[in-house]
Specification:
The chain is mainly beta. The protein has four helices and 21 strands.
Amino acid sequence: MSRAKSLRLLALPLGAALLAAGCGGGQAANLQPGDAAATSAAATTAPAATAPAAASGPVAPLTGLPTSAAVAARPAIAVRVPLTGGVGLNDADIVYQEYEQATLLKVLAIFQSKDAAEIGPVGGVRPADPSLLPSLHPLYANTGGASGTEGLLEKAAIPQVTSSSAGSAYRSGTGGLMTSTTGVLAAAPRGAKAPPAVLPMAGTGEAFTTSHAGKARTVTITPPGAPAETWTYSAAGRSWLRSGTPGVAVANLILQNVPYKEVLLRDPDRFAQSARVLGRGACTAVSGGTATPCSWYKRSAAAVTGYVDAAGVPLRFAPGPTWVVLLPPGSKLAVG
């Protein structure tokens, strides 16, 4: 087998625009990450969305929505499931979408504020996990993985609730092992902590961005060699709906450009692509019916990912669930 090779990131200058909104009477503009001309693609500018009244009591740390003190204090749960056929995604607070292959999408779903009676089929650990999870210090429900990756998770003190060590948290399903938030929490070790607030949430009257903002009603993503996926904004529900994934509705959508590296996975042995989430790069963030170009940075595995606008000011997202798409190099984006 050939030695793993890194894929070259088609880098954007930090703060370069990736969206075209309100162009030509609502027609979507195709944007190529790395294309400097995208900066001038937006023909109209919309006022940045402002937040509704903030909650006065306890809030869920990952969504900013009102909840009980008991729920706010409980740990998060991370589970890898396939995007196609995956169960429980509609109850997740944050979802990271990764392209293991052009047509094979895996997601890392983070649950904290909602109970999910069924989650799965549960997958194994992936190389990106030691970089994504430490900032959330969740309980990680998984079916095992390469010893090197598991060792990095142990070094980062990520408690693992695996199918071999906590069998009572799992049951057999038609597509593989299934779990639930109740089952994983019951198997949690003592001292498990609630996650920090990883995304700044907008308070009353606070704007999503201080820089350019465009109206957004649809977002279409086309990674190299993969079919397009479309998100559509529901003004009534103030949420973004993903085509082909019934029940998924999120307040925020982050399209994050990252490099990918080819890695060797075990059981069965195969090469796959793994997102590299440390460093910095360009992104497009969508909150409510507003989209803005942004930059992301993550200095270490333990640090949360920061998202800033063109002026370098942190974005302030709408309270609610968030879906992060880890876009491979060469992906195209259309916002309309």
